Amino acid sequence: MSLEWRGAAVAPDDEMPSPESWEPVSVPGRPEQFAGAEAVAYETTFSDPRDESDAHALLVLNGTYAHTRVWCNGDLLTEHDAYFEPLRVRLPESEEYRIVVECRSPEDRFGGLHATDQLPPERCVPGVWWDAHLETRPDPCVSELSVQPQVSLDDADETAVEVSATVLTEEPLDDRITLSLRPEGDVRGGGMMDRARVSTDEETASVAYTMDVRDPSLWWPHDRGEQSRYVLRAKLGDDEHSVTTGLRTVSYDDGLRVNGEDVPVRGVTLLDPTVEDVARAVDANANLIRVRAQGTPPEVARACDDHGVLLWQDLPLSGPGSFDGDRGSDLAARLDGTYAAHPSFAAVGVHDEPVASYADGLGSGFLDRLRFRWRAWRTSYDDTDAESVASAVDSVPTFPVVGPPGIAPDGATLYPGWRYGDTADLPWLCSQFGVGDVVAGFGAGALGTAEPNNSPGFDSACHDRHVDGGLDASQAYQAGVIREVAETLRQRNAPLIVVDSLRDVGDAGMGLLAADGAEKTAFSALGDSYEPTQVVLADASPGEQDVIVLHDQPERADLTVEWDRNGDREQAEHTVGPFGRVTVGTLSLSAGDDVTLAVTDGETVVKNEYRINE
Length: 614
What we know:
Layout: E1 5-10, E2 23-25, E3 39-47, E4 56-65, E5 67-72, E6 75-80, E7 87-90, E8 96-104, E9 127-137, E10 141-150, E11 160-168, E12 173-183, E13 192-200, E14 204-212, E15 230-236, E16 239-245, E17 250-252, E18 256-258, E19 261-262, E20 265-270, H1 275-283, E21 288-291, H2 298-307, E22 310-314, H3 325-339, E23 345-352, H4 366-378, H5 384-390, E24 398-403, E25 411-414, H6 426-433, E26 438-442, E27 446-447, H7 460-466, H8 471-491, E28 496-499, E29 508-509, H9 521-529, E30 533-537, E31 543-551, E32 557-565, E33 568-576, E34 581-589, E35 594-600, E36 605-611
Parallel strand pairs: 20-21, 20-28, 21-22, 22-23, 23-24, 24-25, 25-26, 26-28
Antiparallel strand pairs: 1-2, 1-3, 3-8, 4-7, 4-9, 5-6, 5-8, 10-11, 11-14, 12-13, 12-15, 15-16, 17-18, 18-19, 27-29, 30-31, 31-34, 32-33, 32-35, 35-36
Helix pairs in contact: 1-2, 3-5, 8-9
């Protein structure tokens, strides 16, 4: 049932909001007219939606940012403080309903990126962002259903799904829920069915059950296999509830492992995640997205499942400052439970960029490196709370601290050629500070339009230090930084790298795409650099430079490699082992040279082009 809503900016207090006037708004949504408001109230009225076969009416809200209270006919029904977790409100008996939902800006440190200046104000309006609808159900019914896969790689007979269900009933109940788990689509393997007892004198009961899975079919990232899924259905009386999941394992040990196999990660960061962005990430040859310091909308998580893209889900915590560790642990456990059903769910980050940037504007000379080391040494961060929060997550690997070198981050953010130095400083940064295995952010900014007017989070001063020119020069510089850093990290066998970021949120930014999805020059450059099997120059500068094949596949490959320097072409045959790095030749390069490299396995041809600069 669709609902009509009205909204108003309000001053938060302990009472139900009573604004002098309301105006029509779309819910779910982020009404731009309330940008900058500390709290926004939303009101809807409707008649009893139930018919004679229904006993329960539920209001379902998803993405209620950030602290939420719900009133029904003047009575406070519930409060909620984790917008990534769905809110399902059982409505009392009534012929007519007046619902008031108040959403407040964060009352703690867990507003994430939306509590910073990295996103435009209109994207941060307190509200119901993702979903708002009514459900009517018979009695008894399964009002909530969640599932968490438990996969055994050593013994397929021990693979199971942990099922949790919430039952609503008006009468004492002694019955059984019928559970069925069946492959979705053409997935191989048979279905399973079982029954779980529910017995209660209460209106609400929780049921937990472990359901074995026979002959499991596993879910894989798109560059490694199929995206097999299963549908779990729970039937109680005349009521049925379902959820889709997938079977996989994820671990981290000197690299991400999915289903026990190494998966070199080539990722992108999303600042304002959409379903379209997941497909764009695949087009850029990425196999992971990191949703930075915010919750992931359900449809985006489902798109990751569909497209075979791993999901690194951050806690909504960003920027310097202490935070309540107990509150963080509670949110982390709830975040884990919310996304655990998604087979794409692969990692959790806790504290994003916990210290202020300390090296902006430093160059690449000897004195600048000394200054960098001094500033890094003076910067400190106590990761005790972040580590404690991370321990509340038990289904996927965690990266408690994501930030710059110098604070011993679990995931480093490295910006040579942008915030400091140039791209040739990357090996020094990695060796000096012991980083470079997990790189949670790298890149450079660029204009998305010729005349940018609104660019939240974009460092224009940094941009102007590097770029002397307009749109084309800006995007060309960004593309060069992206390519050089990505290819250098891959040559170093970095097991997990994530570019910052996929798409802008304003007229300029770190995105490889403009805010409307239009490609910047760097998008194709990253796509080339992220090809699973690619041939690259060790350094795109004058001098003797090696031609190197990067092969991020688990099988040995027989390859033909070709290089063309100003029309002078050579070719060679090479065999490269699993996840191999092989030098296949050397070129003597001069400024102004045009170089085209190509590699093929007989079926697919991958090219890489360079213009050698001074």
